[in-house]
């Protein structure tokens, strides 16, 4: 067998990783990724405190923030937004929300869970006391807006 090795059998090139690296360096760089002349943009990431208007307490949170030209982003950082869930009176329920498949008590439970869990229907479906599918819960909630 003499000088035959795995590279010969598999038909792989005999170039070493060092020679492949040198080939890559000798290729001309693409100019399309360059910034236009006169534009300087320094981007860094910093671990900074953030405030969120979605929280009612004074919890101090930290977050990796992208800082461009030494200027951190301003404004509110909202991890999670609260939602306003539809509220209804007994008269409004009777006139607009009655459904032959849903009782008022079931609808009340659904809307309470929607408010409590900010319309995260996967969580709501897990907590809903009756056997209803995720699609049924969403359909009932959103049918109140039609």
Automatic annotation (TrEMBL):
Name the UniProt record assigns to this protein: Myb-like domain-containing protein
Gene Ontology BP terms: chromatin remodeling; DNA repair; negative regulation of transcription by RNA polymerase II
Residues annotated as domain Myb-like: 98-143
Chain intervals for the UniProt region annotation (Disordered): 1-37
InterPro entries for this protein: DAMP1_SANT-like, Homeodomain-like_sf, SANT/Myb, Swc4/Dmap1
Keywords assigned by UniProt, alphabetized: Chromatin regulator, Nucleus, Transcription, Transcription regulation
Localisation: Nucleus
Record Pfam families: SANT_DAMP1_like
One Gene Ontology molecular-function label: transcription corepressor activity
Naturally occurring in which organism (per UniProt): Brassica carinata (Ethiopian mustard)
GO cellular component: NuA4 histone acetyltransferase complex; Swr1 complex
Claim: Transcription is one of the keywords in the record: yes
Coarse class of the protein's main subcellular location: nucleus
